[in-house]
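Weekend entry, working from home. Most of the wet-lab plans are on hold until the incubator is repaired, so I used the time to fold the two sequences that have been sitting in the queue since the last round of cloning. Logging both here for the record. First:
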Amino acid sequence: MLSTKLSVITGAMLIGALTISAHVQAETTLRMGWTTADSEVDPYAITARYFAEELEKAAPGEFDVKFFPNHQLGDDTEMLQGMQLGILDAAVITGTQISTIDSSFQLNDLPFLYADSEQAHEVLDGEIGQELMQNLEPQGIIGLGFAEAGFRHTINNQRAITSPEDFSGIKLRVQPSDLYIDSFRALGANPAPLAWSEAFTAVQQGTVDGLEIPLPVIFANKYPEVTDYLSLTSHTYNALGLLISKQALNSLSEDMQTIVREAATKAIERQRETVGANEEEILSKIKEQGMEVNEVENVDAFREKVTSVYDGYRDAIGADLLDRTLELVTK
């Protein structure tokens, strides 16, 4: 099964190798994948391209970063496996899917955990975020830092979501994650876990009523064409892992490893600024394309509905890790 899943990645790598051989090669080629569109406003794409730019600034001509967007190399699970096996060098992957190899990453998926992006940055750039990334090293993956896709909101074709009761009966595509399923069940929705590659078609064909998703991804992936309502629920902060295969990083000299890490830090700083600056403009464009947009005034009403989720995932995340995070976000 694993070899079948990885055949897409392996085939693409062979094609890439043949292409590279026809040109003067850089010292190091990094093959980098992500599942969403290669768009100027897509946060995954911005992360990948800023990372490549910062590598070039720090070490001109030393790195040749090859991009594989739009799930060309399979889904997140397949790319994680590729990095573990050393046949994929780097990827930008949502924290939700990273949690499939380390459950502590479910921390960031807890609903209504962070008040704003600045609070999330403080946690993820500090000891908590470092601890999460260190948990990946035994799995053969090095976490270079957390980029940002913004807060996730709710889009659907049934009604505006202004209170928890509005979720009742709405079939929402959610990420394939037990925590997401349990969170939306607690809110009263009917969650349907689907791979990202299936989500647009499912909404378009009416298999699901909608999904929960960050603003840049809504716009970049043309969801205003197939959904009517956008409710700014801000239910989960979508942290993106900028990851590199441990084999790929260890193959570099110590100086080059330092350059990679520093380039990642600079890329993430730039990416967060860009994503933040883009949000208001993106929201305006979404409205222009005909979506009905509403704010959510009483966040506490939603938060009360999901207290059981915190209790249910305490052990999987790690009680100490969760308690330290809650202490930080409730200061």
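Second, folded right after the first finished:
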Amino acid sequence: MAGREVMTYESPSPTMGIHRIVLVLYQQLGRGTVFAPQVRQNFNLRNFAHRFNLGKPVAAMYFNCQRQTGTGGRRFT
């Protein structure tokens, strides 16, 4: 399978609180170009998939992440 990366992966870096991360994989139904969203806040995945003719998801992953307390991360003594 061949493809071109449109948007690079950005690792989670929450500033505070717990954040929900969802990664969804689609098999593109046509040969059209898929453009990365300009803004990720309030992103609507269903509209995005419909706009670019992506069909239904073939895989997905969900996880929570949270910033470590303090400023220096974990400290082992």
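Plan for Monday: verify the second prediction. The helical segments are 45-51.
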